[in-house]
Amino acid sequence: MEKRYDVLQKLVQEKLSYAAHDLDHVLRVYHLCILLARHEQNVDLDVLIPAVLLHDIARAKEDEDISGEIDHAVLGAKMAETILLDLNYDGELISKICQCILTHRFRSGNPPKSIEAKILYDADKLDIIGATGIARSFMLAGQHGERLYTDVSIDDYIRENIGENGRIKDPSKHTTYIEFELKLKKLPDRLFTDEAKKIAEQRIAYMSQFFETLKQEITGDI
Asked: How many CB atoms sit inside 10 A of residue 201's CB?
């Protein structure tokens, strides 16, 4: 990453959440964005790179919000605007960057429109699947005291533990396998770029095999 982004990266690191949404996550998404950008045309890296660095700037505030009202994509876009104004970024550039941040979240209801926004969205989703996704899921599971695995009806789980806003009511009842069944395995169909879809299919296949093996080991079938 170019040195001109060092100041922005340091500012971001101070406000990032822990574990699964730390600077390591941001840098992985950055590398994925650069990879995806090579397969697209007319990608403005002056928009994409700051958007990558700032996309989770409000994640810690969402994690600390017990009301469930904070959307880190919406708040993050506002926080990013203030930061970029202080750094004397051009107004039009700020608008494009903030639009990427606003639309990067899975459940925000604001679909990405620009190629930069689509790349950020796709790269962010790729980081929660595959081997990296499994590792991140178990990091979060440990923080919330989740069990290693539970074989429950997904319909019953949704009815009992998913709120109207889509957030989990009691994280201790959640598991990485449930997360995979509810959300992660559906991601390839919700991505925008062809290259991201190819990568996602490979990563989901790996996760499917992992959870099947995990189930067999826990039930004593292997």
From this structure: 14
